[in-house]
Amino acid sequence: MKNIIPQEVTLHEVVLRDGIQNEKNIIPTEEKIKLINKLIDCGLRRIEVSSFVNPRFVPQMADSEDLWNKIERKKDVLYSALILGEKSLDRAIHCHVPHVGIFLSASETHSLKNSNRSVSEAKKEAIVLIEKAKSAGMGVRAGVMNAFGCAYEGKIPIEKVTNLISNLVKAEPDEICLADTSGMANPRQMREVLKQVREVVGDRTVSLHLHNTRGLGLANVWEALQHGVRIFDTSMGGLGGCPFIPGARGNIATEDTVHMLHEMGIKVGIDLNCLINESLCFEKFIGKEFPAMVSHL
Amino acid sequence: MKNIIPQEVTLHEVVLRDGIQNEKNIIPTEEKIKLINKLIDCGLRRIEVSSFVNPRFVPQMADSEDLWNKIERKKDVLYSALILGEKSLDRAIHCHVPHVGIFLSASETHSLKNSNRSVSEAKKEAIVLIEKAKSAGMGVRAGVMNAFGCAYEGKIPIEKVTNLISNLVKAEPDEICLADTSGMANPRQMREVLKQVREVVGDRTVSLHLHNTRGLGLANVWEALQHGVRIFDTSMGGLGGCPFIPGARGNIATEDTVHMLHEMGIKVGIDLNCLINESLCFEKFIGKEFPAMVSHL
């Protein structure tokens, strides 16, 4: 699939999960519902609504059940949740969540800090969770965090990533997602990783979750477009960021990604002006400057 | 030259010219000299020292003569100045400037605003200036501003750019520089422009002057690396920006570019830690946050 620039790309909006999870001020459920509706009005068709996580660790996600019970579920929108363990999946099943993300980390240190499990234990658990979610009728994206490097461990060997993925695909998730959790990917590495991952996943859908920590987010998108990636996680305003990397910038910004894709003649189905307006409104609501660029020209 | 990723890249540091030209507080000549020496200590070997411009328009450049008279001229460093018209070149000749940049704009509106000349008039003048500078023994880079789009006019046809360049090369400059003055280039366009420019310039050196206005600076660097570009203008801290685009971010940041190139195994000859330290010092001196990312992790 190399060097074929796609005509269409889908964005998976994570501002409600990755974006706000580190914001100290708790956003009321009603505001989250308004934001979801606005994002859909702007044309987004994949929304990560929340993660099912212990609210002691991520207080912003404490209203997950309430939120899922209150949102309108439009037919042409994919509403997704991030799952962290079996209890988390049970909560999602209870809320009739139609689509989940199940991730493990390629870094031992990060795996222990994030899930209190070794990579090998997390891998076994992820496979069980994918199978259970599928049995419950859910769509599933299975992913590898820190697939391009780790803030604690530095470089992560590609074989470690492809090995994990070859295990995950046996459970037949609908999509494999590579996450650059620490924002360490560069486009030359992206080329190499995607080539090797493609050999493992065949024609399965591959998506990317990128952070713009070092200014390389859109360079990585550009390279990935040439290797069959058609789904990218983005966060409105570029909000988000790892709590373990002080000063780190957030996810790649939805508006900056839409702008790039539009300029390159690629359809995204999103009204950029509408999105910029909503981003600026939400920035005002949150009360700090977002890192997105095209909304601040 | 497509798809051959280079082993080595040279950065042309513009913080002293493009970087500070819009800063209201005048930086003393002695501080500029210190900064030049620090940049060289970090490994930079091409420094744009100043522009010779009417100080009424750019007060920050009023000390150009004084600065050129006072700087140490090391043998392995290329010291360059930006030239704007014949008087400007005469001033540079008077200062024994060894290398100059001579630019015209591909946009009629910008050309009139920037130089009070039509593109056609500016083209004729540029050719005369290149020849005069060469006769004076200077190295010359000739460039086209707004080669990838114009904040006033929008898209600029590639033929307009290649046509200007085919005229400039007749005067035999040492290097052709394409400037994305308005920060509007995208990597798909970069590929197309560089392919067509290459047909006009043959094996002449092509360099790029990029801004990160819309977050695409390093994506454009990555694409350009695969099309024979080995020299990039960068500004420490990412300082810089067009006075006509409110809120616009600056030039691509030297430290972010060095970081990307290092991560991809490309030699730049620059000590990244040293550069980050200097950038943070200068940021403190200027008193506002610079847009560079790797210096703020």
What does this entry look like structurally?
The structure is a homodimer of 297-residue chains. In chain A, helix 7 links the parallel strand 5 and strand 6. In chain A, strands 1-8-7-6-5-4-3-2 form an 8-stranded parallel beta sheet. The longest helix of chain A is centred in the middle third of the chain and has 17 residues, at 119-135. Helix content of chain A is 40%, strand content 15%. With 297 residues, the first copy, chain A, is α/β, with parallel strands linked by helices. Chain A has a single domain (10-296), classed as Aldolase class I (TIM Barrel, Alpha-Beta Barrel), CATH 3.20.20.70. The first copy, chain A, has 11 helices and 8 strands.
Kindly summarize this structure in a few lines.
The structure is a homodimer of 297-residue chains. Chain A is of the alpha/beta class.
Features:
alpha/beta, TIM Barrel, homodimer, 297 residues
Largest sheet of chain A: 8 strands, parallel
Greatest interface by residues involved? A-B, 33 and 33 residues
Strand percent estimate of chain A: 15-25%
Quaternary organization? homodimer
What's the SSE blueprint?
The structure is a homodimer of 297-residue chains.
Chain A: E1 10-13, H1 15-19, H2 29-42, E2 46-52, H3 64-70, E3 78-83, H4 86-94, E4 99-105, H5 108-115, H6 119-135, E5 139-145, H7 158-168, E6 175-179, H8 187-201, E7 205-209, H9 217-225, E8 231-234, H10 254-263, H11 272-286
Parallel strand pairs in A: 1-8, 2-3, 3-4, 4-5, 5-6, 6-7, 7-8
Helix pairs in contact in A: 2-11, 7-8, 8-9, 10-11
